[in-house]
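User: Fold this, then the next.

Assistant: Folding the first:
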Amino acid sequence: MYDLNSEFKDKVCLVTGGSSGIGRGIAIEFGKAGAKVIVADTQEKSKIGKYHDTDIKTTTSEEIEKNGGISEFFECDCSDEKSINELVSHIENRYGKLDILVNNAGVHIPGSIEEIGIEEWDKVVNLNFRGIFVLSKRSLNMLKNSKSGRIINIASIHAFHGVMGPAYAPSKSAVVNLTKNIAIALGKYNITANCICPGYIETPIQDYNTEKEISDYKKTLPLNRFGKPSDIANAALFFASNKSDWITGASLIVDGGDSAA
């Protein structure tokens, strides 16, 4: 077992898209582990889903503080460079450092190449891919000053398939490749960059599915259950810990065996 409270004590962790879903789960677990957590999102209130996260009563920061942790919310649109710059400046001025960057913010707009508009395509790619590049680049000075800087990008198992439309899956494929490039470039600073590729996780992003589609899909999974945000958080904690010191440029599939099947 990791002595997480000791390892992450006083470390500063930024989680984008941290108000809801996977980001919320990751932020809460880092808060429990002793890190100071900045939750960055376009809104502080957690999204309520049709099928999952239907009864959330607290914001992410409130939940972290309720568990005895330290957290704050910062409004940021990670598809907007000005907003990203304001976020980075805030962290520099308030904390003076950043140890762990979790690039989680993302969006999916359903539709084939015949259906999705160019503006919609741009919206998905700008947030899912360009935003990760910009925020990682802007955070470099702080990460270099950390004794063990960590960049953890959230992609998807759809990075390896052609489904989910011409924007979402290709943007996640780009994240996998960008992670490798960042790992190569920043290894000399003792910064690692790794990627987590979730399968179906019980979050509001699944609202576009029908109940039958969800039920049928679940039957195909070897572990016979969907993932929870905490499943992704556990992988993020590993990549942020000293147990992963010699792992960089990796992409870890966390999907309950979906890809294997």
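Now the next one, as you asked:
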Amino acid sequence: MGASVGVGGLIVGTSMLVVLALAVNAIDLRMETSLETIESASEPSSSFTIDNADIALGAVTTLQIDNAGTGYADGTLSTLEPGGFSGTYTVNSTGAIISWSITNHGDYSSDPTIVIDNVPPGASNGALSVVSRTTVIDVTFSNTGATIVPVDEVWLFLDGDTPTKLSVLAPSVDSDFIYSGDIVTLEWRGLGNSSFDDLAITVDGYSVTRALI
């Protein structure tokens, strides 16, 4: 009988150890979960606002110099038709137009007539024309949260598709990070002549959408 009691006690003792081990494990899991919850709650979430989202289906994106002319000085360009385009041009030592730059692409339903502004006395024959008009989306958004967001983690979508990283669209962003209060402005090109309705920005599970106008 003594042996039976001893074996029974051993079984009971082992069972109690198993129960104790399970209880300790459960407590550890609850503590780990609680700590994760507290840590997650203490981390501020990302927050962005889209301040501007404009789409131009006929943005002037490329010009050509049809005639360099003579006697010009570095100056500005505009269009005969209304639409918002503006640009600049530079000349060489003889006053011939050698390069151009677009400062505002505007929006036109057909190719506008490029105008050389304020032609200097004696200048003549200079002429430029539009080579291409494409879809361009102008976007301005702000980091309104308390988090510092890596540029490489910001994604932009058009109509829920075309996922594109901000780092691809705006390689000239001042920093690799977007700090709280920072404002980012970019032009989304390379869209052909497509039309879109909505733009969305997604960062670390946070998403905000705005209609394109």
